[in-house]
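Hi everyone, sorry if this is the wrong subforum. Our group has a chain we'd like a structural model of before ordering constructs, and none of us has done structure prediction before. Sequence below.
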Amino acid sequence: MDAFVGFFHDSSFVEAQLLLITFVLCSLIGLERQIRQKSAGFRTHVLVGLGACAFTLVSAYGFSAVLADDVMLDPSRIAAQIVSGIGFLGAGVIFKGHNVVRGLTTAATIWVAAAVGMTAGAGMLSLAVFLTFLHLLTLFAVAPLVRMLPNQDRHRILRVRYADGAGVLRDLLSASTAMGFSSSVIRSRRIEVDDDRRSAEVDVRFHGRTPLRDLIPQFMDIEGVQRVSLRVDRDEQDGTDTDEI
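Answer:
Right subforum, don't worry. Here is the predicted structure as tokens:
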């Protein structure tokens, strides 16, 4: 029993309760990212939330033994460092390539998970629950409604140049279908590069629930794709040719 002396203290039950609540709330946030197969999923968000909660608890209860009339404690110092440090973790899941930035939503959810952990650790349980509710409401209910609003993609097409005769077009259409896009080929043509190599170019109109630019990095990762450009289809509007964006 002597080994447990000092293991438990007056706030141990409260701390365990707040950590458990943080685990449940951040699990809900992480499951959404896990279902969407994002780079930072369930484990990342739970660990971020628990870490932020633990740091906040240390800030609130960890130095009570050294408090005295001549010793002042500023609990906000650790919280401020959490806010600064979580930005580096969020930046690690943001990728930029082929003029497309990905991972911003995942970085934002990591930020929210840390905020949930901090609010729960500070004992602000109603705020933590309401924050989690609004976060899930935004991603599951509001975001799909926003995607239904009219946008410029209805007049845009993708022009793809690829190696001819290698089955690249089939891979392109399969990749777009896997991302939830339907497609229709507007026009295609062959381009003679040299005697040993031929290329083809195709204009395709895609319809989907996510921005058309999300297809560009996926297409550029397909072997044989040489160039992908987002263009405005003027044929649909006034009978002129396409303009590159």
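For your construct planning: The longest helix spans residues 12-35. Residues 3 and 9 are 14 Å apart (CA to CA).
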